[in-house]
Specification:
The protein is α/β, with parallel strands linked by helices and 308 residues long. The chain is built from ten helices and 14 strands. Bound molecules: nicotinamide-adenine-dinucleotide.
Length: 308
Amino acid sequence: MVKIGVVGAGNVGATTAQLIVQRELAREVILLDVAGGIAKGKGLDLAESAPVDRFDTRIVGTDNPEALEACDLVVITAGIARKPGMSRDDLLATNADIVRSVSGHTRDFAPDAIVIVVTNPLDAMVYVAFEATGFPPRRVVGMAGILDSSRFRYFIAEEVGVSVEDVTAFVLGGHGDSMVPLPRYSSIGGIPLFEFLDEASIAKLVQRTRDGGAEIVGHLEEGSAYYAPASAVAEMAAAISLDKKRILPCAAWLTGQYGIHDLFMGVPVKLGAGGVEGIIEIALTPEEVDALKTSAEAVRASIQKLSG
Ligand SMILES: NC(=O)c1ccc[n+]([C@@H]2O[C@H](COP(=O)([O-])OP(=O)(O)OC[C@H]3O[C@@H](n4cnc5c(N)ncnc54)[C@H](O)[C@@H]3O)[C@@H](O)[C@H]2O)c1
């Protein structure tokens, strides 16, 4: 991949840009923000780390959207973040305007790009980017499931006292209070999670995962989580840039999969150079299907608030 744009040079955007340049996932990275000084300052600061971190990826900070020209991948992190007591939906109208505007720049200057949306409320913002760019659905994808499952994996590893490397876990559905962690598809070293933890302990970890973002917002008092979110975005950028064809939980456009139509929701996808190259449907219990439908209704309600 030649050129990656990161829109929004705040906590998530700048940390994402750092991971992308350190891993040399592109030849050039554009860090774009309406607050030009922040983008230019952080861009230069990152460029000056290149000799020590040994990367040749060029990084430029700017407030000029034209710099997105010919980007192969654009990551949208522009928007406002949650404050204590705010839900992700409280960000809806403000961030929809911002995402609409930067999606327009992406359409105008990088018409062939794949877009990863990070701005919250995630599932609604992916929809806004999809509409505003007019890009085919495989080129618009949202980041949430990797972060949510990473949190779940961390809590499991901590509880059981094992390496995070051996814990796999799966989270479906919308990003938010209605996310659907799937303990049945979670394992430690290939051994089902239920061999290590009883249902009550798993339920506690599931709830902590649902509240994972709010727990951090509560500590920080200003701003929201960014290290784990940026790591999750970088994993998606690597899958696309290196055409890895990873199977990862991402917000993708559903056309009947899991019984859900015309909505972006967190599901397992195959992510490669073509963007969302496939959606994997796994067998769910009736309870899991109900939880997913409830999650879909919450996402649809957010989108309806925007158009209403
Ligand atoms: N999907 C997820 O799992 C996930 C995880 C963490 C954060 N987020 C979301 O990501 C977003 C960014 O979070 P953050 O912590 O980096 O916030 P932040 O406030 O640190 O940074 C946001 C940046 O966006 C910029 N911006 C605003 N309008 C813009 C525009 N029109 N064009 C370009 N830049 C613009 C701001 O100047 C600011 O620098 C928030 O909406 C947050 O809720 C999502």
